[in-house]
Amino acid sequence: MNAKASSRNDLYLILGFIVAVALGPIIMTPFGGYPDLLQKFAIFGIFAIGFNILFGLTGYLSFGHAAFLGAGSYAAVWCFKLVGMNVLPAIISAMIVGGLFSALIGFVSLRRSGIYFSILTLAFAQMCYNLAYSVLGQPGMNLTNGETGLQLKLDDPRYFGESASESGTIPPTSMFGIEMKQIHEFDLFGMTVQVSNGYFVCALFVILAFYVSMRIFRSPFGMMLRAVKTNQNRMSYTGLNTRPYALAAFVISGMYAGLAGGLMSAMDPLAGAERMQWTASGEVVLMTILGGAGTLIGPIIGAGVIKYLENIFSSFNDQVMTGFFDFLPDWLGSAMVWITSPFVGEGWHLTLGVIFMLIVIFLPGGLMEGFARIGRLFRGSRKRGEGAADAPRVPAE
Amino acid sequence: MTILTVRNINKRFGGLKALNEVNLTIEEGTVHAIIGPNGAGKSTLLNCFIGRLEPDTGTVEFNGTSLLGLKPHQINQAGVSRVFQTPEIFGELTLLENVMIPAFAKRDGAFTLNAWGPVRGERSLMERAMEMLNDVGLAKKANDVSGQLSRGDKRRLELAMCLVQEPKLLLLDEPTAGMARADTNNTIDLLKEIAGRGITMVVIEHDMHVVFSLAQKISVLAQGTVIAEDLPQNIKGNPKVQEAYLGGAHL
Amino acid sequence: MDQILLQILNGLDKGSAYALIALGLTLIFGTLGVVNFAHGALFMLGAFCTVSLNKLLTMEQVVLDETRMTAWGTPMEIRTPFVEAWFGEFGTTLVEYAVPLSILVAIPVMLLVGVTMERGLIKHFYKRPHAEQILVTFGLAIVLQEIIKAWFGANPIPQSEPDALGGMLDFGAAIGMTEGTITYPAWRLVYFLFAGVVITGVFCFLQFTTFGMVVRAGMADRETVGLLGINIDKRFTFMFGLAAVVAGLAGVMYTPILSPDYHLGMDFLVLSFVVVVVGGMGSLGGAVMAGFLLGILQSFTAMKRPAIFPDAADRTVGEDILNVWYTILEYLPGIDQIIIYLAAVVVLLVRPRGLMGRKGVMET
User: Fold this and answer.
1) What pLDDT, on a 0 to 100 scale, did the predictor assign at position C227?
2) Predicted pLDDT at A390
3) Coil vs helix vs strand at B63
């Protein structure tokens, strides 16, 4: 066994990941990277890493993970309202709340497996959305502030902090005095690189999240989760109780979602019910399968690709598109604008749906499988070049 | 010493009486074969031992404790392992992982949140799993994905998965079904070797060659009832048994 | 008593919609083994058949009437729908009856949509893992609803029922109670009756035709029926089309009750899933029964204490019970929004297979 080699590979992987995250702001600058987008990469990266622990390892397809993200972000905002503006307690409480919600929903949903499970998680997430949107947003027990969303106010108590800053405004979110929104600029290779303090916090957590996920993947627990996916019957006749394994994976991924929600609120202290909608759950499913479910880095790549495309596509509008097709003859240009405009701006979700279908139809293993295929193709063609004479099949042409 | 005691088991499926007042005792350290024509209720009986089916009435006692009402994983943790008619393995995992999973189950119980240390750090378990793979002749394929194995190899892998747990009782449901003659003989040798380690085995089998090369005791089941229980050399001459098989044709 | 009857009636229209969608879901699952996450989108497409027909029928010609002036001093525009200009009275009736007329449009359209979906997409997923079947139909649901959003906009588009079938129906008077105790929108009753006809139709079709018999046999054991040399695939394609038509019609007739918008489908799909879970997957009867039960349950939790309610001293026993119920509901505001999910939780904990579920269905 080459245990040493594989542990060395893991070391390289985590080091490479840290370098990529650290250099993120510099790499992204030429591509229009600004602090908000980078934070989104990290936050949705965490969300997808967590989802992958459930879906990638156990094969349980949840359509309700946005509920845990939403619950986490509400919890964090409440923490800002009651405790203070330090992001650490907010993020920790977000994780706890995400974990609690997932334990409850998981306990009920995991009574069934397969398609049933997907249906149930979708339904319970929708229930959470309804709870947040209307039931818990009514006077009397207003936990979510309904349609408007939960926001900070000047008269929030903040028992362990200050209600208002000296200038009489709501104090900004911070970590021991370091403000999340503060942006640093520096020049490098003639570019102006912008990084916010918030990105460093997000980066720290995404690295931690990745490291923990790697430990889980390599651990006996991770192996059991893959066994759950492969053959539950054999597992129980092998003396293993499958349900707590699946539930543990569900709760861990729920805590990841809570963490992502908490970070979202830490970067921008408000929470709305739309974060819990089924489209949001669908998005994390898409990120994971786009990158490659069951692979370590696939989900993060998926999250990055989706958020980057979203950033580009939703910023387009008809004028931009007209400018883009300027080189074409007028009639063709306007035809192209007519065709493409439903896919951009407000229509970004249509593009998302189309990508979703294309990936599932043609590349269910995701980009990681795609890379592997391309890799094989290259290796294969080299081999064929070396030994074309004894190739088993000769093409008809 | 008796390891498994079955008393007055009845099981109905709708109008069909699958098991009728079945009594059976399995002695520790023996190979006990259960034979009988198709539909005699052999697999139903086995399923009652491992918690897949609940008998309508009767008791199943293993080492003095009742197995009834226990979940499959609890029965396994008590020391009963089973090889299925169609091999049940973790098809997407490697052979080594397939054997390590039951090894973990034996060491850590039905559920442990062992999520931090890597699998490859578990040297002693890994060595033990390799040993088992070696025993069944699959050590060379340890890092292959098990789903691609031949049926005979899958059966051997399943045996290794059971053996690594050092079960007190090993249940085998037609261990040589669908195997070629050479494979069957290999399997018989392997099972003999296992029996030599003192593991109690209950074998359900159609192939009389297998039964008579392995069993120390044979129970004959027909239409849900045990019609005979005897030493192998005596069972062939039993008129009831001959009656049950093809109305008296010789075995 | 009258309150109970009223709430049951109130629950029927939603229940009918749930039952119709759940019926189609179960048909598709039972025959094709695929859970169609785009089934809600089919309901929505049906609703937008009505919207389209209505738009078409009310396309207007604009004539400037020079003799009359608007307040801004420009000639007044006289707008008349083309159909009225061409057909006069008959045209007006056409516009009036746009919703029921849409049924005629929706049947071929939805059949085509369903068959195209099955042949073009779902067919290729029979042999692929369940997760991928779910994902691809889920993606399709997003695409369909976003296309509708791009075309018709994000806002709900109100539709109205024909006057003759609109208004309030004094249901109490019709069954011999005091007048005005139970008034009920006539269209909802129409919807319920319509759903009843469709459901009965589907059941009769499955029960009494050879085609239906083969399909039922196929639901029980696809492989064996295939071995008999019967071409199951074509029939299953048709069943998919049929389920699409059922969902579409449910959507068409629902438009006067709830103005359709693009996310209508997913809202109803999620609830219909719950209905299917409660009813027991794979059971057509369970789906229909649970649909109505949950619709009625929802309406009972949506009750509010009326403005005029007798004081404690003047109440009958029934009113006392009602009063307790109102008080409970006042402590649980908005419970009607989540009651269906709570019911599902209870059913799952008590009877994991659902009310009428069979063993072995959807368990892998």
Assistant:
1) 64
2) 38
3) coil
Residues, chain C: 364
Angle (deg, nearest 10), helices C98-120 and C39-57: 140
The CA distance from A366 to B2, in Å, is 56
Residues of A in contact with B114 (CB under 8 A): 219-221
CATH topology of domain A29-275: ABC transporter involved in vitamin B12 uptake, BtuC (1.10.3470)
DSSP C206-252: HHHSHHHHHHHHHHH-HHHHHHTT--HHHHHHHHHHHHHHHHHHHHH
> Which amino acid, one-letter code, is at B24?
L
pLDDT tens figures, C55-104: 888 777 777 777 777 777 777 777 777 777 777 777 777 777 888 888 99
Of A114, A123, A352, the CB nearest to C130: A114
Mean pLDDT of A112-117: 83
Please judge whether A135 and C337 are an interchain contact, meaning their C-beta atoms are less than 8 angstroms apart.
yes
Domains of chain B: 2-79+167-248 (3.40.50.300), 97-166 (no CATH)
Short-list C152, C185, C180, C144, CA closest to C50: C152
In angstroms, rounded to a whole number, what is the distance separating the alpha carbons of residues B64 and A120?
42
Q: Are B198 and B29 in contact (CB under 8 A)?
A: yes
Q: List the single residue in B73, B93, B116 with the smallest CB-CB distance to A239.
A: B73
CB contact under 8 A, C136 and A135: no
pLDDT digit string, tens, across residues A89-109: 999 999 999 999 999 999 999
pLDDT digits (tens, 9 = 90+) for B170-226: 999 888 877 778 888 888 888 888 888 888 999 988 888 888 888 889 988 888 888
Q: Which of C122, C132, C134, C151 to mutate to test the interface with A (most CBs of A within 10 A)?
A: C134
Q: Are C171 and C182 in contact (CB under 8 A)?
A: yes
Place of tokens 């300027």: A326
pLDDT of residue B251: 46
Identity of the residue in A114, A120, A127 whose CB atom sits nearest the CB atom of C277: A120
Whether residue A234 contacts residue B97, with contact meaning beta carbons closer than 8 Å, is answered with: no
Spatial neighbors of C263 by CB under 8 A, at least 6 apart, are C145
DSSP letters spanning C256-304: TTS---TTHHHHHHHHHHHHHHHH-TT-HHHHHHHHHHHHHHHHHHT--
> Which chains border B (3 or more CB–CB pairs < 8 Å)?
A
Domain edges within chain A: 29-275
Give the domain ranges of chain C.
Answer: 2-350
Contact of chains A and C by CB distance (3 or more pairs under 8 angstroms): yes
Token pair recorded at residue A302: 């998926």
ipTM computed for the complex: 0.89
Give the separation between CA C148 and CA C157, rounded to whole angstroms: 12
Higher-scoring residue by pLDDT: B251, B30: B30
Tell me the pairing of strands B16-27 and B2-13.
Answer: antiparallel
